[in-house]
Specification:
heterodimer; A: alpha/beta; 5-stranded parallel β-sheet; globular; B: Rossmann fold
Amino acid sequence: MTVAEPIRILLVEDNPADVELTLERMNHSKMRNEVQVVTDGQQAIDCLERKGPFAEAARPDLVLLDLNLPKKNGMEVLKAMRADPSLSTIPVVVLTSSEAETDVVRSYELRANAYVRKPVDLAGYARIVSAIDGFWLSIVKFPGPTTDGAP
Amino acid sequence: MSRRPEILLVEDNPADVDLLLETFEMVELDVKVNVARDGVEALEFLHRRGKFKDAPTPRLVLLDLNLPKVDGRAVLAEVKQAPGLRRIPVIVLSSSSSEKDMSESYDLHANAYVRKPAGIREYKALVRALDGFWCKLVKQPRSPA
């Protein structure tokens, strides 16, 4: 038997404190994982499409997506993913401080797998990352690539 | 929100139903689990038809794939296309380890695919994780449309 591949997470987040906390919690997960961090929406799309500096990037199993991002916002990233057959089944958890009902509705329209509102305090944020670890990393089976079987 | 989250478990195997219900009790979560034994019952519950006309909108659906009458894939496809239902999170809970069942589920917009646990410890971890993420954290739109 081969050793299981680590779970690959793409974290799309421009807030350094949130990034640091996520990395810290994921580091303590009992599931082996690798987190790639990008800080704006354009980088997220380039990374998913393996363009430019991301030519060697691995396909993520899970995307944690903030909505308010520089260059391209989270909705544009989600839309680009859902329009691309090779990326359309990758689970996306929207993690945002947005209070707007339209953001909730629009995220689900674009087939976000879940929408989670970030609390303002760091302890609350840490709880969210723990729950993501507990469900998504520990329990979920992720789909493989969907087009022509190429890994 | 003071009302207990309602979960719809769609499962035809009585042993699996008992085990899940017992696990929910064991971990003492404040949720109500409703059970549908086949795909027809599941759709009637969700559409509030027949004897389910007063059924609540579940916070979460746990869906087996291999079901009598209407199978889980068809239930999933219908739920994810129905305007009033498509935003209800559906977690496929299956004993199948086939890559095809998994990718088909995601293609049909399952919110997540989970393999049925092997033992009681794993069942407890599953139930806690479902509650911790889906019942406690996930934000749903106020209107179901």
